[in-house]
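A favour, since you know our structure tokens better than I do. Would you make up a two-line entry for one protein for me to read? Write everything out right here, beneath this request.
=====
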Amino acid sequence: MFDDKRGSLKDMEANSTNRFIHHRVTVKPLQWQALADEIRGTGSEKLAATGGALYGIWRSQIGRPRDELTVMTVWPGDGVSAAQAEAILFADLAAVRDCKSERMVPTLRPEGPEPPRRQGNYAFRWFETPSENWDEFLDLCAGAWPGFESSYDSQVIGLWRVTDRDNGARRSLLMTRRPDLAMWERSKIPQGPEEAEVRRKLSRRYDLCTWTVVYTSTLLTAEDREDTERWT
């Protein structure tokens, strides 16, 4: 369970003033770059005019279709639903074929609305965890992340809980950044006892959940360098 220093999950979520919305966008063939540019330009302006902000745009690397974008937006408080945010951002964009949006609240991370800015290998891992296992799941994350980040030159961007579902399970999204795909593979094969303990804690989470899936992507809104590789 949580110790006094970290507080309870309920307290952490209650103290967060931001809501994040994950948008999975199906794009017309070969239009993903043009759409990303439009979202980054006029889309950001529309978000700002309604109180929101663009958190990031990612394109498929491994595990998702070529003509799909992952977009995340961030909003203050509870005032905007997933459907409203989707309409604000995508209603007039002709390249959008379909969009599925989910509203989320941050748990252990992130602490604020500042977006990721560095290019790299971004892993999006979704979990569905029975509510009775949720506290242990979070404890394992908190215990493993410092060793994970120091061992693999990697960062945990955030762990969000989806708020629009209430079926007895906690649906959550974990986003991590590694410098490249080689480090993603390296992080799965521990070397030495310290890395083995990190891997034990991370692997234990899979025993607690009833469903999980992961895919990787690169950050189209990165500020340090553009990803020009042909992944899909």
Notes: Residues 160 and 213 are 15 Å apart (CA to CA). Helices lie at 9-15, 32-49, 82-90, 134-152, 181-186, 193-208.
